[in-house]
Amino acid sequence: MSLKINELCVNCDVCEPVCPNKAISMGPDIYVIDPALCTECVGHHDEPQCVVVCPVECIDPDPEHPETNEQLLAKLARLQGGAP
């Protein structure tokens, strides 16, 4: 499932540079995660790097975008130009 940054975000800027898929960007008020790009770091790391570095623990699973590990790996392959 994609991740989502909640309203506790303090815009500390540490999550954006660690995202291997460039899924994190500054939104109108706080950082946001693009669910089309977020793979929860599956295929890159053992755990989502944004969650690891977040000092206020404001990144949660996004219930509006449920995905299995297999679906996240398929998304990563598409993002990298591989087979779906």
Automatic annotation (TrEMBL):
Mention any one GO cellular component term assigned to this protein in its UniProt record.
cytoplasm
GO MF entries: 4 iron, 4 sulfur cluster binding; metal ion binding
Q: Which residue ranges does UniProt annotate as crossing the membrane?
A: none
Q: Which segments of the protein form a coiled coil according to its record?
A: none
Q: Which NCBIfam families does the entry link to?
A: di_4Fe-4S_YfhL
Superkingdom, natural source: Bacteria
Necessary cofactors: [4Fe-4S] cluster
UniProt keywords, alphabetically = 4Fe-4S, Electron transport, Iron, Iron-sulfur, Metal-binding, Transport
Q: Which Pfam families match?
A: Fer4_7 (PF12838)
Q: Which residues form the 4Fe-4S ferredoxin-type domain?
A: 1-29, 31-64
| Originating species | Thermomonas aquatica
The keyword Metal-binding is annotated on this UniProt entry: yes
Q: Protein name, please? A: YfhL family 4Fe-4S dicluster ferredoxin
